Structures are given as C-alpha cells and as structure tokens.
Amino acid sequence: MQSRQSFLKKKNQKKWPYIVSGCIAAAIIALIVTWIGLNDWNIDKSIAALGLSNDKGKPTTEEKVDEPAMEENDEKEQPAAEEEPVVEEPEIDLSGAKGYVGHETLPEEPKYVEGVLIASKTYPLPSTYAPGESKEARAAYEEMAAEAKLSGYNLVAFSTYRSFDYQTQLYNKYVSNDGQEEADRYSARPGYSEHQTGLAFDIGEQHFEQHFARESFGETEAGKWVAANAHKYGFIMRYPNGKEKITGYMYEPWHFRYVGEQLATEVYKAGTTLEEYFEM
Ligand SMILES: [Zn+2]
C-alpha cells in the first residue's frame, strides 16, 4: 500500500510541470487570439499595436521627406494604403519628386485664378515667363520695411525675382551637390519657383544671416513681426507651418508672396493658404 501511494505521489509530481506549462501555453494563445481580435483580426495591425513594426516611425519620416501637393490621402484609415509610399519611393528619380504633378513639359501660358498668378508644383510657369521683380511688390515691401524699422527691425529682402535660367543653375548645383531627391526637398525645379513670378520676397533681418531661409526666422521677433503684419502691405506667408501637404513645400517663415492688400488680408484672416482660399 505504502509503496503504491508513494508511486502515485511520484507520478502526480511528474505530471505537474506538464499541467503548468500546458496552462501557460493555453493562456498565451488565448491572449494572442484576444489581441488579434481587438485589432480587427488584422495581423499587421496587431503587430504594429505592439510597437514592433517599422511603420511606427514613418509619419515623422514623411513629414521630413515628402513635399506632396494636393494629395489628400486618408492614409491612417487604411493600413494597406500606408505601405504604398515606401514601395513608390525608389521611383522618384523616374517620374519626378512627390508633389510635382507629372508635368514633363512646362506650359505655354501661366495659370491665373481669379486674376491671381499661380506658381506651384501643380501649376508651373512657362520657361519664357520673365517679368523681373514686380515694382508694385517692391514698393509694398519698402513700405513694410520702413514700418518694421520703427519697431526696431531692419528687414532685408535677400532673394526676390529669380529668372528661369538662374533657377536652373541653382537647382542643377543643388542636384550635383546633394542628389536630385535631396535637392527636391528644399529647392524648386526650374519653372516651379514662385520667385520666377517677381512677386515672391524672401525676408530676413539685417545682421542675422544665420536665420536666412531657416525655420528659426519664424521664432525671432522680426520674423513674428513680419508674420503678423505682412498682410497689411499685401504679402502672405506662402508656405505656413503644417500646410506642407497643401502647398507642396515645407514651412518657410521667410518666404512671402505679394498678392495685394485686400487678398492678403482675407487670406491672413482666414488663416489659410492660397490653395485653400481658391479651393485649388
Ligand atoms: Zn523663397
């Protein structure tokens, strides 16, 4: 009897590890199934939700890299759509950078919307469009600069009209230095620059060249003054922060476009971009 009891005891002791590990395995499987179920039975989504997926870092990359214009993809709602840009990226060299809307040749005539000249990645200018710096825009700028001086800011327009040929030289230089993909991030291709209109003014503050054509200009007192007052003189900040997908350009707190006092004031008060204002 005693020996049989101790035999059974030993046998039960041997079984314990199997029962325990079996329970743990069942619990893990139940957890996994529940987790996937919570993520709409989508394996990719479940993995992403655990924080193991590369997709997690992508939005920041997209903010930095892309300059897409007029693309309103509801990427977040469709996990499948989110993967497409990664696949398409190597094609940039062939079909043009994101944001350029596939114009292989420049148009014969410039685009006007309600009498306002448009130059963007969607609506490039003819290579022959060469008006020089706008006298009206220059006069308005001088008026603004005089007013700024009274507040203690010595403004400088460090880049205004750029001809098609000059933009070609600039762009080609950037491409040979950094490669086309990188150059497309910060430079317009020839025909696509608003500076070719003669109505775009890159504004900075004298003796503060370190903020020229930098986002940091927006944080300076002079930059804030221009942002808050430019519309009174007919200028709008053409590429505001957070509107990259609409304008096709990253935030440029130094780049102002002359559109006339009335339109500038309306656009400024609406807190919007030219694209949104004209529903282009
Ligand atoms: Zn500019």
Key features of this structure:
binds zinc ion, single chain, Muramoyl-pentapeptide Carboxypeptidase, domain 2, 4-stranded antiparallel sheet, 280 residues, 2 domains, two-stranded antiparallel ribbon, 6 strands, alpha+beta
Strand order of the largest sheet: 3-4-6-5
Backbone CA Rg = 29 Å
Shape: extended
Under CATH at level 1, the class of the largest domain stands as: Alpha Beta
Q: End-to-end distance, in Å?
A: 94 Å
Q: Give a list of the ligands.
A: zinc ion
Hey, roughly how much beta strand do the residues contain? 5-15%
Number of strands: 6
CATH topology of the largest domain: Muramoyl-pentapeptide Carboxypeptidase, domain 2
Low-confidence stretches: 51-97
Number of helices: 12
Classify the secondary structure makeup into a structural class. Answer: alpha+beta
Write down the secondary-structure element order.
HHHHHEEHEHHEHEHEHH
Taking the sheet with the most strands, its summary is: 4 strands, antiparallel
CATH architecture of the largest domain: 2-Layer Sandwich
* pLDDT averaged residue by residue: 77
Helix content: 40-55%
Q: Provide the domain count.
A: 2
